[in-house]
Write a structure and sequence with these properties.
By secondary structure, the protein is mainly beta. Helix content is 7%, strand content 47%. The protein has 1 helix and 39 strands. The longest helix has 34 residues. The relative contact order is 0.08.
């Protein structure tokens, strides 16, 4: 019996030892699972080489308005064609393209940023960083084609929408208000325009006291040459401008400062002087009733016209007859020119019966005494059709500085690039740059109401 009891106890001890080993092993397994046994001390499982996980921006948009009082920024979202307002605070990180920190006071309207929100769908900004993948062009020339929905910046076309951020002096404007003489900073991404900010705009010069110069020529130094007409309003780049007028033996020249969007009045009589080398030119035009344009300006030829010696462009218009376009050379004190219009040929002869023109269907040229010829550029008009400006009601209408009437009004259609200006007492003056197509049809134009002066 003793042997049986000893054997039993020995078997029981072996069983207990095996059970203990199993329990210890189980405990070690649990402990390894909880403590990360087998991993490098103090670190997580390493990420495979070359893989970097980073949260992308919530949206990319254009800064349209900054409200520092309420710490809010209005953003144009080009993808959704919408505007959204977000809140910022002292903890919001604002960075340049290089990652340098900046303040909200340094953020410029029209700049494009990648935006990171504190929470998805929220309105609090965690970070703003200037967009890297961006086309940015400064001091650029821009034109607008509303029919195709494209703008051209320094010869490159971009799509744009009516929501594109377009600013002048921090104020939203219509892209059509940007003229060829303006300069802009353009920003866009992948062929789409995001923002346009006018960096050099335009203003206006209103000449007064210049009746003696009507029929002559006006010069804006380095900018434009125009015929002098009654009631002129010139669109010119902002800054210092030099303006002169010449008519016959009279001349006037003055400097003035032009502010963006403002009208500067210039008295041409104050600096008027008389110069030599002018002639009194007589015109005999058949049939009667035709209109005579010299250097692009209609003149009264019932009396001799005072002109400088030299070459002058001439256009004669009468309904039912071919329009004559050509040049004359003034080299005598009192020359006489006869212009005969017909259905097929229009000729010009001086008092020596020497032909100096041809019909309007050919290139206008004049054979001079020395046998040379000149082919001047003459303004292109469609005398059979009209331009009608129907709105804004009561606004004076100017085409390239020449007064055309008060809207609603109609006038002879001019073809090509023009600057159309609208002016009304007590309201802001506006200019629109556009191209009038030679489509043998009347053209109707209508513009938004002018804003009252503040």
């Amino acid at each position: 019996m003793f042997e049986d009891l000893s054997s039993f106890r020995e078997a029981e001890n072996k069983h207990s030892r095996r059970t203990g080993v199993i329990l210890v092993a189980l405990c070690l397994c649990v402990l390894c699972a909880l403590t990360g046994c087998g991993k490098k001390k103090g670190g997580a499982t390493p990420t495979p080489t070359g893989v970097n996980y980073e949260k992308g921006s919530d949206l990319t948009g254009v800064v349209k308005e900054v409200d520092t009082e309420n710490q809010a920024v209005t953003i144009y979202n080009p993808l959704l064609e919408s505007e959204e307002t977000f809140l910022y605070n002292s903890a919001t990180s604002i960075q340049t393209k290089s990652g340098a920190e900046m303040s909200m006071a340094e953020v410029q309207l029209g700049e494009v940023y990648d935006l990171y929100l504190e929470s998805a769908g929220g309105s609090n900004l965690a970070q703003m960083k200037m967009t890297q993948d961006l086309v940015e062009q400064e001091s650029s020339v821009m034109s607008v084609d509303p029919d195709s929905g494209k703008i051209t910046v320094d010869g490159v076309k971009y799509e744009y929408s009516e929501h594109m951020v377009t600013l002048s002096d921090g104020t939203p404007i219509d892209p059509m208000e940007i003229t060829d003489m303006d300069r802009v900073t353009f920003r866009g991404i992948q062929g789409k325009a995001y923002s346009v900010v006018v960096t050099r705009g335009h203003g206006y010069i209103e000449p007064v006291e210049y009746a003696d110069f009507v029929g002559g020529t006006l010069y804006v130094e380095g900018e434009t040459i125009l015929p002098v007409t009654e009631g002129m309003l010139l669109t010119v780049p902002e800054g210092r401008q030099t303006v002169s007028m010449k008519n016959g033996d009279l001349t006037s020249k003055a400097d003035l400062q032009v502010e963006r969007g403002k009208v500067a009045t210039l008295n041409m009589k104050d600096s008027m002087t008389q110069v030599p080398n002018t002639a009194r030119v007589s015109f005999h035009i058949h049939p009667e009733g035709a209109e005579l344009y010299i250097n692009g300006s209609m003149v009264d030829y019932s009396q001799p016209v005072s002109l400088y010696y030299g070459m002058h462009t001439v256009q004669v218009v009468l309904e039912g007859y071919n329009t004559y376009q050509g040049t004359i050379r003034v080299q005598d004190p009192e020359p006489v020119f006869r212009i005969d219009l017909s259905e097929e040929v229009a000729t010009v002869e001086d008092n020596d019966d020497k032909a100096t023109g041809n019909d309007s269907s050919q290139s206008s040229s004049v054979t001079e005494d020395d046998g040379t010829t000149q082919n001047p550029e003459i303004a292109d008009y469609d005398v059979d059709h009209k331009i009608t400006v129907s709105a804004p009601d009561g606004a004076a209408v100017y085409i390239n500085g020449a007064y055309k009437g008060v809207a609603p009004c109609s006038f002879t259609k001019c073809v090509g690039k023009i600057t159309l200006t609208l002016q009304k007492d007590g309201y802001e003056t506006k200019s629109y740059s556009m191209e009038i197509i030679d489509d043998s049809q009347d053209t109707g134009l209508s513009f938004p109401d002018l804003k009252a002066n503040t």
